[in-house]
Structure formats: C-alpha cells, structure tokens
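User: Just a sanity check before I run the rest of the batch. Below are the structure tokens for the first item. I only need the designed sequence back.
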C-alpha cells in the first residue's frame, strides 16, 4: 500500500513589519463612491494593513476611520483599541454614490479634533480617493477644505488612483508632496508603496 499523503505544509507567515510605536492621531478618510466599487475590498484591506502597522493604545497611536461618497460617515472615532478599529473597517458600507472629498476631509478634521484627541500629539489625515469631486462643488472645493485642515495643524497624506487628478492630490497634500502625496496606478501599487511603513516615517 502507498504511503498516506503527507499533510500540507503550513503557509509561510506573511512578512510582518514591526508595529510603528509612535504617538499619533491618524484618521483614514476613504472613498466609497460608486466608481470604487470594484476596488473597495482592496481599499478596506489597505486600511487594515495601515492599522496593523501601528501599535494602538491610549499612549501610542489612535486611529479613526471615515468613509465618504455624496456625504461622509464616521466608522469609528479616534481609538486605541485595535479590535474596535478593525471591526469598524469590517462594517464599512457598500460603495455607491458621488464623490465629496471636501465632506470627507471636513469630517476627518472633526474626528481628529474629537473628544478622544490628545493635546500636543501629532495628527494626520490619510485621504484615499479614485476621482474628482462631483458633489458639493469640485476639486477646488476639496483643495479649499484641505487648506482648512492644514491650517488647523493637521497633516494630510493624499493618495489617489484611477480618475483622480495628480494636481489635485498634490494640492490637497501637506508639503513636501514628495512625502505627503502619492498617486498609484491601482490599489495594489498603493498597498505596496505603504506596505513598508512609509507612514511611520513621516
């Protein structure tokens, strides 16, 4: 009789970047307009990957998550509870509707200034969008709202793909744009760019 088949070898664990241990208030502002429908699962995976890069606690990083289409919604305010943040991302609603980047940025700012915000802790919004603003104005409206955010002392990491305009992504971002703006050919390129912990180095 033949030997029994050998058990399958366990899959290799994915390479793990050590968590970034830093005091930071970070809000992910994620596009969920209709045009991202095919990329939405990858967008949410990207959000999970960013969360996994940081050590979350009331004394380290706190992360909040906002999604936007015609309007913006808070999935979770600033939290140092990684389980709660992951659950909030898992609960994101299906993509659909137009694109109001300005609403996303405005709500991101209110989350970053919310009750959980800590004094004298650096704060950053990471904006991810695949398009131009189609409701509540246009790209100039988004750029103007970004200026409000930056004038409040909040850094913006601006990330675009798809139909977003590189010039708008750069105008929304903090300076220098070489650090704070990134335009990816698709979500895979964006995930690869940020996979090495680029956010931790800002």
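Assistant: Here's the designed sequence for the first item:
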């Amino acid at each position: 009789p033949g030997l029994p088949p050998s058990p399958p070898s366990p899959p290799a664990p994915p390479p793990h970047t050590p968590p970034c241990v830093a005091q930071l208030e970070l809000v992910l502002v994620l596009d969920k307009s209709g045009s991202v429908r095919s990329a939405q699962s990858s967008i949410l995976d990207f959000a999970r990957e960013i969360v996994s890069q940081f050590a979350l606690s009331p004394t380290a990083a706190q992360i909040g998550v906002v999604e936007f289409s015609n309007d913006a919604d808070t999935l979770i305010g600033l939290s140092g509870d990684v389980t709660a943040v992951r659950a909030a991302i898992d609960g994101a609603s299906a993509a659909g509707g137009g694109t109001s980047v300005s609403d996303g940025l405005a709500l991101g700012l209110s989350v970053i200034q919310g009750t959980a915000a800590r004094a004298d802790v650096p704060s950053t919004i990471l904006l991810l969008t695949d398009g131009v603003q189609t409701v509540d104005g246009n790209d100039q409206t988004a750029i103007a709202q970004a200026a409000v955010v930056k004038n409040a002392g909040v850094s913006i990491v601006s990330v675009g793909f798809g139909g977003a305009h590189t010039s708008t992504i750069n105008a929304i971002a903090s300076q220098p744009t070489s650090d704070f703006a990134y335009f990816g050919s698709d979500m895979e390129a964006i995930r690869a760019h940020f996979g090495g912990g680029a956010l931790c180095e800002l």
